[in-house]
Amino acid sequence: MTYLTKPKLHHPSLTANKVGYTRRDYEGKISTLCAGCGHDSISAAIIQACWELDIAPHRVAKLSGIGCSSKTPDYFLGASHGFNTVHGRMPSVLTGANLANHELLYLGVSGDGDSASIGLGQFAHAMRRGVNMVYIVENNGVYGLTKGQFSATADQGSKSKKGVVNSDSPVDLVALALQLGASYVARSFSGDKAQLVPLIKGAIGHGGAAFIDIISPCVAFNNHAGSTKSYDYVREHNESVSRIDFITERDEITTSYAPGEMIEVVQHDGSSLRFRKLQSDYDPTDRYAALSYMNAHQARGEVVTGLLYVDPLVTDLHVALNTSDTPLNQLGAAQLCPGARVLDKLNTSLR
Ligand SMILES: Cc1ncc(C[n+]2csc(CCOP(=O)(O)OP(=O)(O)O)c2C)c(N)n1
Ligand code: SF4
Ligand SMILES: [Mg+2]
Fold first, then answer.
1. Has residue 284 been placed in a domain?
2. What is the DSSP letter of 77?
3. 63, 89, 114, 213, best to mutate for ligand 1 pocket (most atoms within 8 Å of CB)
4. Distance CA 244, CA 264 (A)
5. Which ligand places an atom closest to the C-alpha of 88?
6. How many domains is the chain built from?
7. I need a surface site. Which of 131, 227, 283, 349 has the fewest CB within 10 A?
């Protein structure tokens, strides 16, 4: 059996959010992942974020590739649209779906194998095109589903469960996303829900290419001494740049900070991100400073987490292509196919 359906029992005392759904309505099937797998904590954080943001589940499209991580959309948002693509091809399918209907919230879920090996080209182009999406990589440094081979994000010198030392240089998806033009870039840890939930909420409110790399330990194949993606390693080397509070337009602001301790960034949908600085020299609106800060800390074996970069004035691919405001599935035949005369005129203009 590859999945287990959850019984649909709703206790009458469960709290409903502003669109009338309880947290239970944002769950999916029962997970078949290994007990303790980091990926399940990420599913729980996505459920929490969507419920708290009052997002109607049928307004979300979840897309993924192949891997244990890519199986997880089955375990959250059971009433949303879903598409499990071919290995590494999630970004192009997501881009196409987004161009056809920009009114849904696009959630791309992938693994380090899915995005940093076979799907690296697709990952790169989705980032550089500024597709409006939340792109999550559940990064465990191995191909969990095919029994624990090193993935392209495994650190040089890290050890496999059987003691083999990885000699290849790692692909750092956060560094790539920064370089390629993603406008919201974060790294987090599946074991830090307090950091993860606001980061996901901020990405949902962002309005452009939002990328979150989440270190998500594989308890079956990469949670031993010598791994740099284990629970112990990440807890011991986690260097968080900030704590963020995500505030929607309608939220009452209850937090207060002394001047200099906090940066506020207002996003396109009116939501704001309040950064409590944990590192006084960190500026989350400077793309190149973020890159060099991260590289310097990484060289010391530290895992820098938090919201590393955000451009609040972002635009997305639809703006760049000047597409129709009306989703394609709501246009009539006359608009979708304006006839031979219009086509002739267009062809003539291109001669
Ligand atoms: C075209 C193709 N090549 C190879 C595979 C075999 N395969 C399945 S999952 C996977 C890697 C998954 O790794 P990752 O994306 O890191 O997910 P994880 O299981 O670690 O969460 C591979 C190589 C496949 N399914 N399709
Ligand atoms: S093999 Fe690893 S990644 Fe896959 S479910 Fe088990 S712990 Fe998670
Ligand atoms: Mg993996």
1. yes
2. -
3. 114
4. 9
5. 1
6. 1
7. 349
Is 27's C-beta closer than 6 angstroms to any atom of ligand 1? no
Structural domain boundaries enclosing 306:
23-321
For the CA of 138, the nearest atom of ligand 1:
21
218-237: pLDDT as tens digits: 999 999 999 999 999 999 99
For residue 12, tell me if it sits in a domain: no
- Residue 54 belongs to a domain with what CATH number? 3.40.50.970
User: Which of 138, 143, 160, 219 has most ligand 1 atoms within 8 Å of CB, for mutation?
Assistant: 143
Whether 69 lines ligand 1, by a CB cut-off of 6 Å, is yes
Domain assignment present for 136: yes
**183 CB-side CA count, 13 A:** 22
Structural domain contains residue 177: yes
Q: Which CA distances in Å does 64 have to 94, 111, 198, 239, 310?
A: 9, 9, 22, 29, 24
For residue 44, the CA-to-ligand 2 centroid distance in Å is: 16
pTM check: above 0.70 = yes
Residue 277 has pLDDT above 70, yes or no: no
CA-nearest of 32, 31, 38, 34 to 230 is 38
Residue pair 327/101 in contact by the 8 Å Cβ criterion = yes
Report pLDDT digits (tens) over 287-316.
999 999 989 888 888 899 999 999 988 889
